[in-house]
Amino acid sequence: MKISAGLPTGVSAALFDSAKRRRRLEARLSALLEERGFAEVLLPILDYFEPYRPLLTGRRLEQLYRFVDRDGQLLVLRGDFTPMLARLLAPHLDELELPLRLYYRGDVVRHQPLRPGRMREYSQLGAELLGGDEAEADERMLTLFFDLLLKARGEAPVPGDGEEHALRVVLGVAGALDEALLAAAGDREASDLALRIASRDRTAARRAGLAEVVERGYPTDLSVLGGFAEAVSDLLELRDRLAAAYRGLGIEVEVDLAEFAAAALDPRIGVGEGPRGYYDGLMFAAYAPGTALALGVGGRYDKVFRSLSGDCSAVGFSLGLDLLLELGAAEALP
Amino acid sequence: MITFGLPKGRNLGPARASLAAAGLNLDGLDSSRLRQRFPDQNLLGTPVEVLLLKDWDLPLYVEHGIVDCAIVGSDVLEETQPDVFRPLQLKDGRSRLSLIAETPDLPKRSGQLRAATRYPAWAARLLAKRNLHVEVIHLTSSIELGPLLDLTDVAVDIVQTGTTLRTHDLHEVEVLARVAPTFVVNRASFHAHRRRLSGLLGTLEETETGGD
């Protein structure tokens, strides 16, 4: 058998300074998490495949590296921390004192086509808050998300034109456009319309009466969102509070329902956008100028626990450490 | 500053004309230079940089954030499937992707048909949707030679005016998809320049009466 000196496609080694930079960033972020009362959990790299069938969408299931071990068990390499943590905690919810604040760091692997900046092994750091008042938990976790982004950037001043160079956090609600999509396109076409809106297709949006959603992120008349109007109204208030708190610190906040249009909850739409497939409430993502991918994503995922026969509210997020390092986060650290 | 990626070659003219019609004037653009700056752009309220790149490379530069936005053929987007926003299709330069054969109907064959195309992934998807089980052969140019020289039974290629087909006595058996120059934007750039790009896209949408 011929073995090349290189590594398999989509993975890389961190040697010398790059290893030091990554550990330094991890330490900095972990310190903030510990300060806020989050306890670290260490999760295994291997798990059974079967428990993930109800938890992950089709695309995400396809991305799992799976194999049969010597005992004939179908196993997977860790492709995501959140569902693993949920499935381990769900049977023990009665014994746990909620709210529970947990964080993790480590690598996940996913088999996916290689795209710019997209590896098959990622290094992540994330946090989860289980239980407690939902609105309060959402705001608390978003604030933590913002603070970790600032901490990763070393709280360095934003260079040049503030608005252009700021980090952007976009907020949305899973399923918020479902009723509007179904009303505009019917059961058969709603899924295609959801993907077009997510791609910011102005022509499709205008025809569906959702032009404002792709232009400014949400409709002026929230009643077109039907049962989701109140949730989006609350989200706009949350955005205003966060924008006021982080103004001048280099983070811009916006509500953008189009960003999460494909994260539909209604089974008639059933797009189930890959990595965001398990969210069922607040959703958020952070972007930096000139990057290919989101620096971090998160949201509320109560339905994961429901599908595991557990009753627990849950909100969390993960940050891509490789992406933060690519942005030069660690250099900015004192 | 906003960086635009525009296609080198014959697609540059229509792309530039669409932007000019929307008020983004790129007077003095030198098609032989890779990178050029246009400091005064009142329409966007920020300087504009233009990079002239090959059609097939543009999606990669947009996805990676090297350029904020670009005008790329939807054929290239369908084949390469980049993770970019596609807010608008332009009117000028539209064409179609068609199934082409030496006969007006699909040739009958007991085995699997063979198709020559420069879009192997997209053609395979479109043909599978029609329950046509076809062996797709990737060619990079002169696709019509596939059926003409008996390399393949059919070709799947762009048809604009039909002149090439008539010249070679070929038939357009079926239109598989419509193709249009498409304005694409990098995800992060969309959020960073939302207000500025929204203005440009709104004007472009008004001038491009063609819609979908």
What does this structure look like?
The complex is a heterodimer of chains A (334) and B (212). Chain A has 334 residues and is α+β, with helices and mostly antiparallel strands. Chain A has 2 domains: 1-158 and 316-334, 2-Layer Sandwich (BirA Bifunctional Protein, domain 2); 167-288, no CATH class. Chain A has helices spanning 17-35, 58-63, 82-89, 134-152, 162-165, 178-198, 202-207, 211-215, 229-246, 302-307, 321-326, 329-332, and strands spanning 39-40, 46-48, 66-68, 74-77, 100-109, 121-130, 167-173, 251-255, 282-287, 296-300, 314-320. The radius of gyration of chain A is 20 Å and the shape is globular. The model of chain A has no long low-confidence stretch (mean pLDDT 89). By secondary structure, chain B is of the alpha/beta class. Chain B folds into 2 domains: 2-93 and 180-207, 3-Layer(aba) Sandwich (D-Maltodextrin-Binding Protein, domain 2); 95-179, Periplasmic binding protein-like II (D-Maltodextrin-Binding Protein, domain 2), CATH 3.40.190. Chain B contains 8 helices and 11 strands. Chain B has helices at 12-21, 58-63, 74-80, 120-129, 145-148, 163-167, 187-192, 194-207; strands at residues 2-7, 35-38, 48-53, 69-73, 85-89, 95-101, 113-117, 134-138, 154-159, 171-179, 181-185. In chain B, the strands form 2 sheets. Chain B has a 6-stranded mixed beta sheet. Chain B is elongated. The two termini of chain B are 29 Å apart. The model of chain B has no long low-confidence stretch (mean pLDDT 91). The chains are: A alpha+beta (334), B alpha/beta (212). The A-B interface holds A 115-117, 163-164, 166, 168, 170, 199-204, 206-207, 214-216, 252, 254, 256, 287-294 and B 1, 46, 60, 63-66, 82-83, 85-89, 185-194, 198, 201-202, 205, 211-212.
